[in-house]
Amino acid sequence: MEGNTFTIEEATVEEIHQAFSDNRLTARQLVDFYLNRIQTLNPVLRAVIEVNPDAIELADLADRKLKECRENGTGINELGELHGIPVLLKDTIGTNDKLNTTAGSYALMGSKVPRDAEVVEKLRKAGAIILGKSSLSEWYKFRSLSGVPDGWCARAGQGVNPYVHSGTPCGSSSGSAIAVSANMAAVSLGTETHSSIICPAGHNSVVGFKPTVGLTSRAGVIPMAPRWDSIGPICRSVSDAVCLLNVIAGLDPRDTATAEASKFIPEGGYKQFLNRNGLKGKRLGIVRHPFMENIQDSNESKAFDHHINRLRQEGAVIVDNLHLADIDTILEPNHSGEILVMMAEFKTSINSYLKELSNSPVSSLADIIAFNENNRELVGIPSSF
C-alpha cells in the first residue's frame, strides 16, 4: 500500500486494518472479494471445500462494530488483532457452525462437533471471520500410503499448485497454502504432523511453520498422531503468520500439552520480535541432498539459487551443502519406525475423537474403512491418477 493506493491482492493484515481505519475498505467488501476469487479460481485450483454460508453476515457484523469504533473514537485494535480478517481453516479443524469438518472425506459428512476447536474460539474472539474450510490430502494422506496424490481428497478433488499446474501442491495442508497463494483468503490455518505445513507452504510460495507441539491447542481438531500434531499458520507474509500465531497460541485445559508449552510464550506476544533486518548475521543451513536431486527443470534450480542469493543480500550467512547423518533412514518412514507409531496413534486417537462428536455417521476407524469399501464410486481416486 503506497500513499492512498490500496489493493486487496497481497494485502497484509496490517494493511487491511489500516484501510479499515481510513474508511477505504469494509469487511463486507473484503469478504466479497475473496468469495469472488473462490468462485472464479476454485473450479481449477480446488483449494476450498466449503464456503461459510454466514460469511457475509459475519462481515456485516464486523462492519457495524468498525462503525461504532470510529464513532466512539477508539482504535481498531480495541476490536481484536484479526477483526474483520477472513480466515480459511483446514477441513480438520472443528467449527460448531454450518460448516462440515470431514478431513476431506465423505465418511464424516453431516457429523457435528460439540464445540469450536480451541484455535477457532481464539480466532473468533480476535474478531476473525471464518471464511470456510480448505481442502487437503484426505485423512492427512493416511487413507492410503501410496497411490493417493498430494492434495487430493474425495470432497474437493485434486488441489492444484497455482504456480506450476503440473507440479505438486504437496500436503496435507495443501488447500490452505494454495488459497492464500492465489489470494482466495487473507490468511489460513493448517495442521502438521510430518511436514504438512512446511511442505505445501514451500511448494506454493507462501509462509508456513509448525509451532512447537503444545504451543497451539489441538482440542477439537481431527487427530493424526498426538505426540507430533500441531496447528499453525499459512500466510503470504512472515508478519501475518506471526500475527496469526499470536492469536492462536496459549493454554487450553482440554489439551494437556499446552500446559508446559504455554510457559514459553513471551510476555507481549511474538509480534514484538518482527524485524525487517532480522536475517542479518543469521546462519542458515542449506541441505541439498537429496531434496534438490529431483529437480530436473533448470529454471527451478535457478529460482532456488536466486532465493539463496537474496538471503545473502539481506545479510544471512549461508552454510551450503550441509549433510545430514542417516538422511536416507530418516526420509524412509517405514525404516525409521515413524509409520508404525503413526498407525498406532491414529487408530486410538481417531476413535476417541469420533466418540466426542454429537452426531456422526461413523463411530470408529473400522466404520470409516467400511464406508470407503462400500462407497468406492463416491470416494475412489479418479482413474487419471
Can you characterise this structure?
The protein is α/β, with parallel strands linked by helices and 385 residues long. It has a domain at 13-276: Amidase signature (AS) enzymes, CATH 3.90.1300.10. The protein has 14 helices and ten strands. It has helices at residues 13-21, 27-45, 55-72, 118-125, 174-181, 198-203, 238-248, 257-261, 298-313, 327-330, 333-336, 338-356, 365-374, 376-379; strands at residues 48-51, 86-90, 129-134, 152-153, 157-158, 187-192, 207-208, 230-235, 283-285, 317-319. Strands 1-3-2-6-8-7 form a six-stranded mixed β-sheet, sandwiched between helices. The longest helix has 19 residues, at 27-45. InterPro entries: Amidase_dom (IPR023631), AS_sf (IPR036928). This is OLC1v1021341C2. It comes from Oldenlandia corymbosa var. corymbosa.
Shape: globular
CATH superfamily of one domain: Amidase signature (AS) domain
What do the pLDDT scores average to? 93
* Oligomer classification: single chain
User: Could you say what the CATH topology of one domain is called?
Assistant: Amidase signature (AS) enzymes
Order of helices and strands: HHEHEHEEEHEHEEHHEHEHHHHH
CATH C-level of one domain: Alpha Beta
Distance between the amino and carboxyl termini: 43 Å
Residues in helices, as a percent range: 25-40%
Strand content: 5-15%
Question: Biggest β-sheet: count, sense, barrel?
Answer: 6 strands, mixed
Structural class of the secondary structure composition?
alpha/beta
Strand order of the largest sheet: 1-3-2-6-8-7
The tally of strands reads 10
CATH architecture of one domain: Alpha-Beta Complex
Number of helices: 14
Please state the CA-atom Rg, rounded to the nearest Å. Answer: 21 Å
Low-pLDDT windows of residues: none
